[in-house]
Design brief:
By secondary structure, the protein is of the alpha/beta class. The protein contains nine helices and five strands. Bound molecules: cytidine-5'-diphosphate.
Length: 219
């Protein structure tokens, strides 16, 4: 990795608060941010648009290889249908291989904050700081349900919880880059923390790793 290693890897299960935290950390450290879940979501969206089965490895790989930056700008990447299809395409090794170099290039030059499932284990095993962000199933289901409601999606809390648990189980049990905390990751349980408290706890971990925030840290 060139220059000073300024990679922050943030992994964890669905709706644990990774995205909010990663965005704030990136702003505080003046680093670009990549939501790697969007890559898998965009591949899934392309597969669904072609009426192809997201579980078919050949379709999934073809769409991963054809992915364009505009695909990441779409506003229909966070639907329950795409949640499920993203976990399916993400279990295909060829899809993960197709997305690997983009992720590495994104962080390699000047550093970056990336969130996902395998950033600390596979994409950047030598990241400067690794956080594994988690929370109880109930807390995460409730957060996702509130997010969906805020976007006008009317879903039952029980259904949101069941979908989320199924996706976590699939992510954790797949053979290719399963969801797990890297051995050297710091686990941050946000069940009882609000966004400010989670951010403060994360900043303490980053400081331990020698990454200190500038004056915009309070933004
Ligand atoms: O926002 P949420 O945490 O629910 O999901 P996401 O981060 O957008 O990821 C969607 C799906 O993409 C996950 O359930 C994983 O199956 C897959 N994913 C992955 O396999 N590896 C990553 N680095 C990021 C996401």
């Amino acid at each position: 990795m060139s220059g000073a290693n300024r990679i922050v890897a943030i992994d964890g299960p669905a709706a644990a608060g990774k995205g909010t935290l990663a965005r704030r950390i990136a702003r505080a450290l003046g680093l670009p941010y990549l939501d790697t879940g969007l890559l898998y979501r965009a591949v899934a969206r392309r597969v669904l648009d072609r009426d192809a089965g997201p579980a078919d490895p050949a379709h999934a790989e073809a769409e991963a290889l054809a992915l364009r930056s505009e695909d990441l700008e779409r506003t229909d990447l966070r639907t329950p249908e795409v949640d499920r299809a993203a976990a399916l395409v993400a279990s295909v090794p060829a899809v993960r291989a197709a997305l690997l170099s983009f992720q590495r290039r994104f962080g390699r030059e000047g550093g970056a904050v990336l969130d996902g499932r395998d950033i600390g284990t596979i994409i950047f095993p030598d990241a400067r700081a690794k956080l594994f962000v988690t929370a109880s199933v109930d807390a995460r289901a409730r957060r996702r349900w509130l997010e969906l409601r805020a976007r006008g999606v009317d879903a039952a809390l029980d259904a949101v919880r069941a979908d989320m648990q199924a996706r976590d189980a699939a992510d954790a049990s797949r053979a290719a880059a399963p969801l797990r905390a890297a051995d050297d990751a710091v686990v941050l349980d946000t069940t009882a923390l609000d966004a400010d408290q989670a951010f403060a706890a994360a900043l303490a971990v980053l400081a331990q790793a020698g990454l200190t925030a500038g004056p915009s840290a309070e933004a």
